[in-house]
Design brief:
InterPro entries: RNHCP. By secondary structure, this protein is mainly β. The protein contains 2 helices and 6 strands; from the N terminus they run ββββββαα.
């Protein structure tokens, strides 16, 4: 389990560019970018969206996609600690990658982590 540290009360938007640790794509961040638009992988860096307080730093594998209320929600699982999280897909995300993950049964992150899913991208 990641160490839970005091988080800011509000989302902190940070525009951060990164190289995907899974597929090596150079990703230009928007301030809401959470994952690679090509492979949908990310890194476990947040306790709450944008806080960068997670100590795990493991890779977050995309394990499923839901389509709810007109938008895709990507469920990711940390390969190091098992932390589950959902994020909204961005318009730049690969539709092939999203569709390839649809229909997979995954546990609800809210049920496993005891909190609501994030609203930020």
């Amino acid at each position: 389990m990641p160490t839970v540290t005091e988080s800011p009360k509000r989302f902190v938007r940070r525009r951060e560019d990164f190289d995907c640790a899974n597929c090596r794509k150079q990703v230009l961040g928007t301030g809401y970018t959470n994952h690679c638009p090509r492979c949908l992988w990310s890194r476990h860096v947040d306790v709450a969206p944008g806080d960068r307080l997670a100590t795990c730093r493991g890779m977050m594998e995309p394990v499923g996609v839901l389509y709810e209320r007109g938008e895709y929600l990507v469920t990711q699982c940390c390969v190091e600690c098992g932390h589950l999280w959902q994020n909204r897909a961005a318009s730049a995300d690969s539709r092939n990658a999203l569709h390839g993950l649809m229909g997979r049964a995954v546990k609800s992150p809210a049920a496993s982590n005891g909190r609501r899913r994030p609203t930020e991208r």
